[in-house]
Amino acid sequence: MKVEQISVFLENKSGRLAEVTEVLAAAGINLRxxxxxxTADFGILRLIVKDTGxxxxxLKENGFTVGGTEVLAVEVxxxxxxxxxxxxxxxQKDINVxxxxxxxxxxxxxxxxxxxxxxxxxxxxxxxQNNVRILSGEEVCAL
Length: 143
Known about the structure:
The chain is of the alpha+beta class. Helix content is 33%, strand content 42%. The model has no long low-confidence stretch (mean pLDDT 89).
């Protein structure tokens, strides 16, 4: 149910993002979802891939600083108000969204959103109570 996300810390300079993608491509690792946030000095690239262990290993071997975080991949109805309903269920349980980003593909009549919460287990309980489908890492990588 929880999905492992890789975080790569990058110097904010030309070509660094390309280096990450080249290293992963050479290792045969396909990107399923990603987000990039930056400050003046560095960026954080967040990735969902099928083989997180291999991805972390090859990135570290190539000099990148890499971490891991558990996130949730949540199906959100692809209609007006779909996201509002999911966020309302979390808000009722006082669960904070630390960040989120969209997945690149639809799952049936739903969009897939990657979430990081301050209380992951609480979020799982709240979403299940409201019949919100949470995808496993295998399901995310199969889309």
